[in-house]
Design a protein that fits this description.
Helix content is 41%, strand content 15%. It has 274 residues and is an alpha/beta fold. Helix 9 links the parallel strand 7 and strand 8. It starts with a helix and ends with a helix.
């Protein structure tokens, strides 16, 4: 899926919502635990309730890998349940030496069929470039994350005075990371830094976690981070998945997704994109 195709989906659905799929067994509604595959039933119900309001799903692989081989089979079934045309991101945060990264890319792009994968840039160019060689696929590079520990390293000044996250964004664009193959993770908990990130990467999409449970503000994210083609995929996970943990969990998830979509629609109209 190209950047233009993503933009067209945003215009069609009047949404730039990405729903994170983080199915934690201890948080699933009790009645689902009687099913043969509670995680699959939960994810399918969430997708059925939310797909009208979002343009992307982001399964967090840890929640599936923790279930062993059955979890990876479940991940395949979850992906098969996603309606055609909706962007899928493997939240895997992979990054290793070149030949290993190539196999990670092959696994998630070709075997599982994801459109994108999150990638850790710490090991540098040769660990990232293999993810950029698959036509129509995306690497989503960790730049400025939403967690509290992001300040441990990501703001550290480099030899040129730039904080590390800025150097990641600037240098990675020299690795073949054009705006149809590379996105950046930019946390909603750092809204003012989004303005600087947008200066450094004016055309690239930003995957923005941290709206909702982590306290990120959607209006601030859009004020600082939106470009002429929106350029944002705003992720919400727990605020949607666990809006209700009873028998009406799916209905509550749909309402939470719709609420965010309505906010996004209003912002797009204000920007002349509605």
């Amino acid at each position: 899926m190209t950047r233009q195709e993503l933009f067209e989906q945003i215009l069609r659905k009047q949404s730039f919502l990405c729903v994170g799929l983080d199915p934690e067994l201890s948080k699933l509604p009790q009645h689902l635990l009687q099913c043969n595959n509670p995680v699959l039933e939960f994810c399918k119900a969430i997708i059925d309730a939310t797909h009208h309001y979002c343009i992307a799903y982001k399964p967090n692989l840890a929640f599936f890998e923790a279930l062993g081989p059955d979890g990876l089979r479940t991940l395949t079934q979850v992906l098969a349940h996603v309606p055609p045309g909706i962007f899928t991101i493997a939240d895997a945060k992979r990054g290793d030496i070149g030949n290993t990264s190539r196999l990670y890319a092959q696994a998630y792009f070709e075997c599982f069929g994801f459109d994108a994968i999150t990638v850790a840039p710490y090991m540098g160019e040769d660990s990232v470039k293999p993810f950029l060689t698959f036509p129509g696929k995306w690497a989503v590079l960790l730049a400025l994350t939403s967690n509290a520990g992001s300040r441990n390293f990501q703001f550290t000044p480099q030899e040129d005075g730039l904080p590390l996250y800025e150097k990641v964004i600037k240098q990675s664009q020299q690795w073949g990371g054009h705006a149809n193959a590379l996105m950046y993770v930019a946390g909603a908990t750092h809204p003012e830094e989004l303005a600087r990130i947008r200066e450094l990467a004016p055309q690239h999409f930003l995957l923005v976690p941290g709206v909702g449970t982590q306290g990120g503000d959607l209006a601030a994210v859009c004020h600082y981070g939106m470009n002429e083609q929106c350029g944002l995929l705003v992720n919400a996970s727990r605020a949607i998945l666990y809006a209700d943990q009873g028998v009406h969990f799916a209905q509550a998830a749909g309402q939470a997704a719709r609420y965010l979509q309505r906010q996004m629609q209003a912002i797009l109209k204000e920007r002349g994109l509605g």
